[in-house]
Amino acid sequence: MTRLLSEHSIRQLPERADALLRGIGAAAPKPGTLVARTPITGDQLGTLRADTVADADQAIERAATAFRTWRSVPAPQRAAVVRRLAELLSLHHAELAELVTLETGKIGAEAAGEVQEMIDICEFAVGLSRQLYGRTMPSERPGHRLMETWHPLGVVGVVSAFNFPVAVWSWNTAIALVCGNTVVWKPSERTPLTALACHTLLRRAAHEVGADPQIHQLLLGDAEVGARLVDDERVALLSATGSVPMGRAVAPRVAARFGRCLLELGGNNGAIVTPSADVELAARAIVFAAAGTAGQRCTTLRRLIVHADIAGPMLYQLEKAYLQLRVGNPLERDVLIGPLLDGHAYERMRAAIARAIADGGELLCGGERVDGFGDEAFYVRPAIVRMPAQTAIVREETFAPILYVLTYRGFDAAIELHNAVPQGLSSAVFTTDQREAERFLAAEGSDCGIANVNIGTSGAEIGGAFGGEKHTGGGRESGSDAWKAYMRRATNTINYSDELPLAQGIRFG
């Protein structure tokens, strides 16, 4: 089922990371205290100099200064930077994808898909640059025009997580830039090399089209550096992706200075499988959504709610598929499941399974560690746990490949069970009954920001707004009208008459 990494290939990973950065054109990072590791082996890829709070303050000031000019550049001209970035991303697609694999442990197909997502959102943003529409409304006063206009906010701070080290950055950055903002990016300290590569390409894109490269700033460091973005009044919008506890800490601090927050937090995603479902189709979708990226997606499927009459056939299909999943080195072409991020992730998975069993759950398959990759690399087989009820551990989000299976009888009970968790990111129903599908999508159905029919919970497209409700934070990124989060709205009244009527028919003097 697995192939051992050779000593030769283990030694080559740091050299390979250096070669990829050089191929992209990134300057060699200055050695320092920030350690870049690969979850493939747990070994170091290199060290980088970590930015300080003083560095963060200077980066914010450079972005604020650049904004004063950038905001006045016409949006279609601002889009030239993003268009050129898309071209450079396409040119370096393979190198970027391999860097993503090295730093996150994603398999090649998923890493390549993430890079493609960057290119797609750049194309979306370029088109958006000519569609930052306002509205004109009829005024109640004669000789007057009433309209809305949209303007850039200022400096946008972006804090991204390790599991999507480049896609989430691009969602925010491509749209923020065409909207006329400047960006300061604080990536996860676990993925500094991919961040350095993307920053290099964006700066190159700006330079090549004659824009100010200072419109984008990169901060590499720990939470203390990110905290500067949270508390600095020069940061008009903070877009932060991470855990619910992180959101609870960040949101009040940004609100205290009357800044704006865009939060993408935890997801404890569920899917309902009804008696009319195409079981084979559902099984394929469920396996990818539950086991892909080793369960380390915010949209990972974690709760499966199956009608009692088809639970047996459904679980048979899933267990059969899980036994065929190849766990191993994500650099190998036929591997489907790579490693967990680190030992902490592995211990959280073990603890969650133990709690589930203590609550009466039955471990049907998986959960064991796969050996042969070194003491500091943590590969596990995806687990399926059948639960008698939705206990406390099922209501929590464990960032690991654990699928909890619950059963139901009535569709109303299934929806109630589905919605009875604090998180509200992504959801799905598998059914061929149109009434069930429509009810799931209606106001009384799924309470999540994403609700799908006959497709899994993961794999969102950039054309639709991405985000969730409840403890997921309520933010929206990427497509649709998510651009409005990156701009401020002004209501304008223009009097083109020689009279001065007041609104609501008020007469004064």
UniProtKB/TrEMBL annotation:
One GO molecular-function entry: aldehyde dehydrogenase (NAD+) activity
Top-rank taxon, per record: Bacteria
Domain Aldehyde dehydrogenase per the UniProt entry, residue ranges: 34-489
Claim: NAD is one of the keywords in the record: yes
Keywords, alphabetical: NAD, Oxidoreductase
Pfam families cross-referenced by the UniProt entry: Aldedh
Signal peptide per UniProt: none
Keyword NAD attributed: yes
Quaternary structure and interacting proteins, as annotated: Homotetramer.
Similarity section: Belongs to the aldehyde dehydrogenase family.
Protein name in the entry: Aldehyde dehydrogenase family protein
Source organism: Nocardia donostiensis
